[in-house]
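Task 17 of the worksheet. Students: predict the tertiary structure of the chain below and write it out as structure tokens. Keep your answer in the requested format; marks are given for formatting as well as content.
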Amino acid sequence: MKKILVILLAVIIVTSLTSCVFVPLDSNQQTLNGSNDSANQPVPSAVSEKAMEIYFLNFKPEIAEVYQRIATDYESETGVKVNVVTAASGTYETTLKSEIAKAEAPTIFQINGPVGYQAWEEYCADISGTKLYEYLSDKSLAVSKGSGVYGIPYVVEGYGIIYNNAILQKYFSLADKAVSISSADEIQSFTDLKAVVEDMTGKKEQLGIEGVFASTSLNQGEQWRWQTHLANLPLYYEFKDNQDFDNTVLAGLDAKEIQFKYGAQFRNIFDLYTNNSSTAKGLLGGKSVNDSMAEFALGKVAMVQNGNWAWSQIASVEGNIVKSEDIRFMPIYTGVVGEETQGLCIGTENYLSINCKVSQEKQNASIAFLEWLFSSEKGKAYVTNDLGFIAPYTTFKENEKPADPLAREVLAWMERDGTVSVPWTFAAFPSEDFKNYFGDVLLEYVQGTKTWDDVAQIVIDSWKSEKGS
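Model answer:
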């Protein structure tokens, strides 16, 4: 009986140390919500000497030196040592598998969204009760399961329709415009967008533009904006309809076949691009992304589909005439019911998780470090100026956000009440070949050698064949 009691006691102790339910600090220890005073963000008072060191396994070698400086500053302020280890490029999963098995395992590690969570679920603590999760501006971006939150994004990117507000304001001021809309903010559906775009095309000489949209780049290797980014929308909505999953990426990964249910909506916006472009359809097979971005930067067009990464490209075009204050984003409307609440397509492959197998004290100390990084003045300065992140947290004031206009637009759309960002569901696409088949048939469709029914069938068939291969 004594031996049995000893064994049971040991099991209880081990279970308490390895529980994957995160227990937040008490009210006196918890970091202050939105506080910029790092002195008010103490280390848990009950932390043992061993818990005074936490271990962050970093994914990005290019910012390893910055994290070392962050760790040094954090230790000088709090006394908690942050051991930053950086995996070599392309070896993160292998390194994590090796390190997680050690006695001194990483307390903070990274997962690749819902797919990565499937592989590391048993190590991910539920952080839904933390200030870190509370700071997240768009809660739908977190990796969750049921009511639990197991991964939180630390940097995001977004894409949509970039527009030159100066040209749109010129259009809206026309006495003979055919719409009652008076600003781009009033465009909230495909119906609105189509009415504005087609009327602008009829008045392009008055507006001094060659077309409303920049060239739809369909040259080989230049199709990713359509076969990946635009294709994200119909498949997001299709997988969203699958009630067996609460995540569209996981639903997509599980799908052996697709119906392309929202193919007509994809066609809506794709036709709008090509019918109101600066370039004739027959020439689109020779156009690149650089061509379309140059057209936008030179003021030849009013709109172009791309992401926040395009700002540096726009700004570097020789002869660029678009002012930074006129660069705006709107969602890619396609005609789906309820799209009035749709936001930009926002995503990332970079999520932070807390190792639930380490002691509760180390979990608390790890969360405290991340909350300091994304809420203190010093931490936020590192994030914006040195790490260069678009950090999706409400703790960043206007003067602490990235300077480039498209990054600021991404953050503004994420913070809009009642707006739901579209996740990067293309992470579930079966292969590069699938995307290339999609892109190639779009060119044939534009050139008139394939019908839309042909496009839809090739998309359906190639998904099935790639999933089966």
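Marker's comment: Residues 158-346+425-468 form a domain with the D-Maltodextrin-Binding Protein; domain 2 fold (CATH 3.40.190.10). Residues 5-9, 11-19, 26-48 have pLDDT under 50 and may be disordered.
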